[in-house]
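Hi U.,

Before I forget, here's the chain from the pilot set. I'm dumping it here mostly so it's searchable later in email.
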Amino acid sequence: MENAIQNEKVIYTGSTITIGGRGGSAKSTDGKLDVKLTAPGAIGEGTNPEQLFAAGWSACFIGAMGKAAVAKDIKFPADATVYAEVDLVLSETDGYSLKARLSISLPGIDNETAKTIAEAAHSLCPYSKMVKGNIQVETNIL
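Structure:
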């Protein structure tokens, strides 16, 4: 395998089949996901890639914050929340791109500690690693 990292172990592979792009549908090969896709802002049923990305990233990021809190011996709140916003942007120079904001609520944890946990989570979360240096990301502690 090209570019394999030594001692790398795949722990899970999510696989989907998408037909028709933004106006089609996406299904996971295990049958657990089955969604109709629509363009952003379209009226009617369906979701879009930006919403799916926001949901996946925020879920993963909460897990990463939990790991970061445990590493710092901080009790992580069960009701931790991430409000993720992913913008589809069109510019004259770069064409289409994404921007994102993660607004984080960690009840019972002071803002400075929450900021430290969030910063550590960005170095743990695979989604954060994927976008680092590729899109503008703003992190806010609520």
